[in-house]
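Prompt: I keep going back and forth on a fold encoding question. Comparing notes only helps if you start from a blank page. Show me how you would write down a chain together with its backbone fold. Please set it down just below, with no commentary around it:
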Amino acid sequence: ITYPERYKLLGLEVPAGALFFGPPGCGKTLLAKALANHSGANFISVKGPELLNMYFGESESKVRQVFSRARASAPCVIFFDELDALCPRRGSGGDSGGGNVSERVVNQLLTELDGLETRRDVYIVAATNRLELIDDAMLRPGRLGKLLYVPLPTPSDRYSILNALVRKMELDESVSIKEIANDSRTDGYSGADLSSLVREASMAIMAEWRSREDFGAARKEGKKSFASEAYLKLCHRHFEAAFKKVRASVTKKDRIRYDLIQKFLNEGNSAVESIRAADSKLIG
């Protein structure tokens, strides 16, 4: 997008797009938005299920409209979130009674992705946490063959995420964000889990606030604000209370599976081969 003339000089074809995969809550959607913003391109976000319509031809028409809008505002990035809902494996029988809506949508998407001339300056980014459910034809090179793994955050990543989450809050001296980020209890936490941790810590402040003796009296007097700012600081005890309620949303088995898929991809296997190899190893 940024250097189109260099691609032309090298005779490189414009890549169709990329697919982000990884555990839920790891920021795949945020990454796509950041990508579009960094490149200076327009951005169209599409949730997978919103294109599906039970009436014959309506779903395909919606797909064509999305690509038509993108061409009109090129350069443009189309982001398909929850791609597994939009492009399930054909012949899987998931459209019972629905007139094979999903299969027709997959066929229409493949047609749009293969139309190199009509898709000029239109780039596709998709995201999923169920890679195994996507139709194999979507994952071949030339379509969404570029798979990018978005893993669970490392301790340093967790530190950055937590700092972003608490940037507008007042922290007590007892709180060490670095210590929380490196705490063994946060191992396996996704970005969404960390957000939930901060929210629960804030709710612990509210619970303390409501339990104070002057809360009931203040309500009767109609005072909207009566607590000093000291009572609204995030303290270490609030995070300890939050740890009792928040658990990692991604299971250990799922983490191993995603890591295996990435490992097989790095070894040069195709997306389909990597998924099957990872599942075989887990079953074995």
